[in-house]
Amino acid sequence: xxxxxxxxxxxxxxxxxxxxxxxxxxxxEEPNRAEYVAQLEQICKPRSEATARVVRGVRxxxxxxxxxxxATKFAKAKRIFGATVDAISTVPRPATDRATLKRWFGxxxxxELYLGQMVKVLRQDSVAGFQRVSAKFIQEGNRANNxxxxxxxxxxxxxxxxxx
Length: 164
Description:
Number of helices: 6
Largest sheet: none
Number of strands: 0
Radius of gyration: 24 Å
Structural class: mainly alpha
Shape: elongated
Number of domains: 2
Order of helices and strands: HHHHHH
CATH architecture of the largest domain: Up-down Bundle
Distance between the termini: 79 Å
Helix content: over 70%
């Protein structure tokens, strides 16, 4: 056997375990769907509960035309929601679900946008504008849920009752 061929074989034999180890490390860093959902639920649960506390009574505020109070509650909810989306967006995503999760995060971004618009129209004392934007907010939340229905989210899923 030629010395160059022997060196190449020895080099390949030495690098094979290293490449297998590197591949296993990369696979270990990438969670499966169940692990991903569990990680996100841990982040979403306390923030979802905080959102529900912050917006408690907002429906009554709107009906009684206490729009400034409702706007303040929705502004706090928007901050919590935005921080939640920022926190969960940093969690490594399963490779097989990246396209689905990209659609979901897009819908979550639009939900945050609609929350901001709800605050704006409430501060402008526009009940009709609030109704229009809140309908879009709910529609976008349902769209987000539909994107990840197979994931089985609880606290990370959109529930309109959390915003009443």
